[in-house]
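User: quick one
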Amino acid sequence: MGKHTSNFTYSDSFSTKSDDRHATPPFGMQPQYDLQRSTTISCLGHPSHPVQTGEVICRSCGALAAGAHLGIYQIQQLLGRGRSGNAYLAQHQRSKQAVVIKLFAPDPVSMGLWEAARREVRTITALRHPSILPNFSCTAWYPKLPPGTTRPLPDLTAPYIEQDVYLLTLCQYAPITLDHFLAHYQKSKRAIQEQGPRFLGYLLSLIAQAGTALSAAHAHGIAHGALVPGNILLNNQGHLWVADFGLARLHTPSAPYLPPELYGVRDACLQKGTMTPFWEAITPAGDQYMLATLCQQILSQLLLPADYEHLQPILQCALHQHPARRFASIDIFIHELTEQAARPSHTTGHSLRPAFEVLPQQDQPSSGEYSRGYVQLTPPPSEAYEKQHPATANYSLASSLPPSTPADDWEKLGGKFFTSRDYESAVNAYLQALELDVNKYSCWLALGDAYFALERYSGALGAYERAAALNSYDPGVWTNLGTALDALGRHKEALICYERADQLNA
Ligand SMILES: Nc1ncnc2c1ncn2[C@@H]1O[C@H](COP(=O)(O)OP(=O)(O)OP(=O)(O)O)[C@@H](O)[C@H]1O
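Assistant: Done. Structure below.
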C-alpha cells in the first residue's frame, strides 16, 4: 500500500513481496478455495450445493464444482458473475499457471450469436495486441458427454440448437479488476491527490492503453460493445488489458455505459428475444462513449475536480448524445485527452486553450457533418500524427490513389475499407497491393481477413496459405489457417494448425 508521503509511487504500491507468491492476492480478492482440506465436493454457486464426485457442473444451478477437472484445468474459485455467465479461476495442472474459465449457459437470446462471437474472438486473438487480454480458446462444451469423448464441432453455418451445450472460453488471468484498482487507490486518495497532475498522467496512460486496444479492434471492423469495469483488467506493473472482445456484445451493457443511441436497440432486443440487433448496432462511436464514461468514473473517484476539469470539454465531446458529434475515432479522442492534459490547468495559474467552448450545443449536425464541426473546434491531427495513426485520416476512394501508388498505400487503403466494413473494396485494394509486391506478408494476412469477413472461406484459406509460405514462424498465421479450415468444416486439419500455433507460442 502506498505511504502518505510525496515519494508515493504508483507501481510500487501494487507490488507484492516476491517470496510471498501464495499470499492473499491484493485488492481484496478472495483467497483460493482450499481444495486439499475440503471433504465434500460442492459447486461454486450461491448458495453452493453438494455435487457428486466426478461431476463438473452442478445440475441444479449450473455453477462449476470446486476442485473439478475440466481437461487439464482444475477449477478453484468463482471470480465473479457477468451478464452472460460466470468467470472461474482455474489452474493448469502441469504448469500450475492460473487461467480464467468463462462459462456461458445456453441462452436462446444469445446462442444464435455464439458462432459469430467465436469468430470474432479468433480474429481479435490473431492481432496479439498487448492491451487485449489473450483468449486461449473459445469452444462449445457438452458437459453430458463422458470425459475424454471428442465430438466434432457443430456445423459452423447453423445456429446452435442444442440445449446441452455451453460456450466455454479460456483466457489469461489478470490479478486486478478496475473495481479493485479504484478501491485500492481510494484508500490512498489524499496521497494521490497531493500528486495531482502526475497521478492524472498515470491514469491517462491506462486509459490510453484501453484506447489502443479498441483502435486495433476497430481497424479490423470489430467493436467491443460493453466497456464495463469487469472488462478492464490490470496487473501490478500498470499494464492494462481490455477483456471479452467478441463476447461482450452477447448482452447489452447497463446504464451508464449503454450509449444513448442504443436505448431503442436494447428495447428491440428485449422485444424480439434476440441480441442480434445489438450485436449489429454497436459501433466504434459507441465504444468511445463507454470509454469516456469509464474515464470520467475513474477521474471523479480518484481526483479532485480541479485536477481534471480542464478535460471535461474533451470528455463531453466523446460523450455527446449524438454519435456523429463525438470524435472521429478513439485515436483522436485519446490524442485530444492527452494533449489537453499536458496543457496546464487554470488551477496552476495558466489559462486553458478555449478549444471546445465554442461548440454550439443546440446545433445538432446530421451524421457526416461531424468532421466539419471537429475542424472548427480544434486543429485536425498533424500529418505526422495521421501517419502514425492511419485510422484517423479521411480517405475517399475517388481522390485516393493513382494506379502507380506503392503497395504500402494500397494496403493502407484496404485497411480503411476493412474498417468501414466495405470488405469487397478491401479485397480489391489488397489485391492491388499484392500485384505490386507479391511477397507482402501482412497483405496476404489482411486479404485473408477480408475474404473471411465476406465468408469466402476458400479465398481466406488461400491467402493465409500464401502468408504461411512467406513466414511459417508466426503463430498468428497458423491460428488464422485453423479458423479458415474450421469454417470450411475441415476440423482435423484446423486442430493441427492450432497445435502448431500453440507450439510457436510456447
Ligand atoms: N481474466 C480475468 N482475470 C481476473 N478476473 C476476471 C477475469 N475475467 C473476469 N474476471 C472477474 O470475473 C468477473 C465476472 O467476469 P465476466 O466476464 O463474467 O463479467 P463482467 O466482465 O463483470 O461483466 P460482463 O458480463 O458485462 O462482461 C469480473 O467482474 C471480474 O471481476
